[in-house]
Design brief:
Layout (H helix, E strand, L loop, with lengths): L3 E3 L14 E4 L9 H14 L17 H11 L6 H15 L10 H10 L3 E5 L4 H10 L9 E3 L12 H10 L6 E5 L2 H9 L3 E5 L13 E3 L10
Parallel strand pairs: 2-3, 2-5, 3-4, 5-6, 6-7
Antiparallel strand pairs: 1-7
Helix pairs in contact: 1-3, 2-3
């Protein structure tokens, strides 16, 4: 079960009844696809004649595919057409993830608990739309599961800027302070707090001390929304 750690950061007592929406990051929260997008990008670069290593991508994790691929190309001073190489990377990715991606522990049950509370739910991911659709399809949570989705192509400034979460709140027609963000990374926590939202951090990608700015930290989502 998820280990829950909470922090009293609010001058007023928080109640779950205040929530109207839950906004989910995707990678590291709903699914762990990092291994596969890395493999796809490595294969894409190999086809272009450049050999790159998995560790080359680490500084660019969570920044969106433009930076994820473009940052590695810059490291090797390797000119690319970012739109063309992204398209090819996603084609490879779509093939290699078939029947390999699974939702992270507790994801479907946590979403069900949100729906029982009549909360609106959204995906807000820095990934491009095509990757978001592939991932959600493969884990059995297609885009129709959510009230809305927001992807990295819909905002100019990526996390730690709050834009993607503010966009999600706007599309859901709820106030930022009535939203809970579920995140796995420090940059996402900063984005949530900058948006004026509460944040639940999942320890799938980072350790507790690196997630300390969240309002709650849990080992995984094998909890209920009522546990907050």
């Amino acid at each position: 079960m998820g280990l829950m750690i909470s922090f009293d950061r609010s001058p007023t007592e928080f109640s779950i009844t205040m929530l109207k929406a839950v906004l989910f990051d995707m990678d590291g929260v709903l699914v762990d696809s990092e291994e596969f997008i890395c493999k796809a990008a490595i294969e894409m670069f190999r086809e272009k004649g450049l050999t790159v290593k998995p560790e080359d991508f680490i500084p660019f994790v969570g920044t969106g595919e433009n930076r994820y691929i473009g940052g590695v190309a810059e490291k090797y001073n390797f000119p690319i057409d970012i739109l063309a190489v992204k398209k090819r990377t996603y084609e490879i990715y779509d093939i290699i993830v078939r029947n390999k991606l699974k939702p992270l522990p507790g994801v479907k049950e946590f979403i069900a608990s949100c729906k029982r509370k009549n909360l609106k739910i959204a995906v807000a991911t820095s990934a491009d739309e095509v990757k978001m659709i592939i991932n959600l399809r493969e884990i059995g949570l297609p885009v129709e599961t959510f009230d809305i989705t927001v992807n990295g192509l819909q905002v100019e400034r990526k996390k730690p800027f709050p834009d993607i979460y503010l966009k999600a709140a706007e599309l859901l027609d709820v106030l930022p302070e009535d939203c809970l963000v579920v995140e796995d990374a420090p940059s996402g926590i900063k984005a949530a707090r900058a948006a004026g939202m509460k944040c639940l951090a999942v320890m799938s990608s980072f350790k507790e001390k690196e997630l300390k700015d969240a309002d709650w930290i849990t080992k995984d989502l094998r909890i209920s929304i009522n546990d907050l």
